[in-house]
């Protein structure tokens, strides 16, 4: 590895360690070693142009920049886990794995167009978007169960099953018009409305009347 010592006799490793210690997330020894190697190679290239680390110190914190660049270069699973840790729901391992797979597939396709996750970072938080998409891509039973859990009286399994069947049939009818549950999510909580309709006293009275007649 190309060795460089600045005028204050700090090695590149020292400079990277100082950069890491200024951050809230100080990273691992492996992160620091990787940043030191990156810094060394970049400075070796710069030296061919007569540019030293002292020169860079006037315009940018190159050790800190190298460290931040490598800290951002986390694999999809690490990026998704970081998203989950910022959310109150925590998510399941299955959710994390599905979001990681989705992110990896999207990035694989994007790479064919020269687009990387770094590019996406300028316009959207793609790991977070993938995780939210996975959470929304739940089956109707899960959506009804969540609707039930938001109520003070969560209801019975029979009511949940009835609400799921109601939701499925209504969405089947809506699909003939090109309307999906995702479309409804923009205007109303259809799973919640179906569940509320099933557990409403009016529905119970209507059911009793229909049975009696």
Structural category is: mainly alpha
Helix content bin: 55-70%
- Number of H- or I-type helical stretches: 13
Distance between the termini: 89 Å
Please state the average pLDDT score: 83
For the biggest sheet, the summary is: none
Query: What is the overall silhouette?
Result: elongated
Q: Low-confidence parts, pLDDT < 50 over ≥5 residues?
A: 1-7
User: H/E element string?
Assistant: HHHHHHHHHHHHH
Structural Rg: 27 Å
Share of residues in strands: under 5%
Overview of the structural elements:
This protein has 213 residues and is mainly alpha-helical. The chain is built from 13 helices and no strands. It has helices at 12-21, 29-47, 53-57, 62-72, 76-86, 93-111, 117-121, 126-136, 140-149, 157-175, 181-185, 190-199, 201-212. Helix 2 (29-47) packs across helix 4, helix 6 (93-111) crosses helix 8 (126-136) and helix 9 crosses helix 10 (157-175). The termini are far apart.
Structural topology:
Elements (H helix, E strand, L loop, with lengths): L11 H10 L7 H19 L5 H5 L4 H11 L3 H11 L6 H19 L5 H5 L4 H11 L3 H10 L7 H19 L5 H5 L4 H10 L1 H12 L1
Helix pairs in contact: 1-2, 1-4, 2-4, 5-6, 5-8, 6-8, 9-10, 9-12, 10-12
